[in-house]
Design goal:
Layout (H helix, E strand, L loop, with lengths): L19 H5 L3 H30 L10 E7 L9 E10 L4 E15 L2 E6 L10 E2 L7 E2 L6 E2 L5 E3 L8 E2 L1 E4 L2 E6 L13
Antiparallel strand pairs: 1-11, 2-3, 3-4, 4-9, 5-6, 6-7, 7-8, 10-11
Bound molecules: FE2/S2 (inorganic) cluster (FES).
The site of FE2/S2 (inorganic) cluster has 12 residues, from loops.
Length: about 190
């Protein structure tokens, strides 16, 4: 090019033929379809993700409340009128985990003829474990602050604010099943925890 040549025309003045890049851009109608597909996909993903999250987040044993029926010893292992302490062994569940075969506590079981009764071994005063009290003519006694209970679990003396906590029983295939529950200590009412 010589100095006498006319300057080249500005690029904006060039004829507007579509460039390869602009040729590949979606047209408005195609954009609308693409947007609809994306929105629809998100909606489906959300609809399936919420139940999945609920399943994963649901804690084991989250129903809460109520006792649990646990089989203890055979009825024929009991001697009439002689309370026996038995361990309560069952699965322990919290919000997220489960442990198999854990000792959850103990109860006193006693048979009088065909009737089988059970009491929590937890003293209602401050939660110590009550023992038999043969020297007191039968019944139960707490070693911590000397609360005493008769053979039917009725409070006789001491600071315990209530009787021993009776538990429901039933016979299953010759075994004594106990409905194991825990109750608040230090209060006169029998309130399940
Ligand atoms: S804990 Fe039993 S009398 Fe206090």
């Amino acid at each position: 090019m010589t100095t006498s040549d006319p300057p080249p025309p500005p690029e904006s003045a060039a004829p507007s033929t579509p460039s390869p890049a602009s040729a590949g851009e979606p047209r408005p109608a195609r954009r609308t379809v693409t947007l609809a597909v994306v929105v629809g996909s998100c909606a489906i993903a959300a609809a399936t993700a919420i139940p999945a999250a609920a399943f994963v987040a649901a804690p084991i044993g989250s129903k809460g409340g109520g006792g649990r029926w646990v089989r203890t010893l055979r009825v024929d292992q009991l001697v009439d009128g002689e309370p026996k302490r038995v361990a309560i062994v069952d699965d322990r569940r919290d919000a997220w985990t489960i442990e198999r075969g854990v000792e959850l506590g103990s109860v006193w079981v006693v048979k009088h003829g065909a009737k089988v009764s059970a009491f929590s071994s937890v003293c209602p005063h401050l939660g110590c474990s009550v023992n038999l009290a043969p020297e007191a003519g039968g019944g139960f006694a707490c070693p911590c602050h000397t609360s005493a209970f008769d053979a039917d679990g009725k409070r006789k003396s001491g600071p315990s604010p209530r009787d021993l906590d009776a538990l429901a029983t039933r016979i299953e295939d010759g075994f004594v099943a106990v409905e194991f529950r825990r109750f608040r200590i230090g209060v006169p009412e029998k309130v399940e925890t």
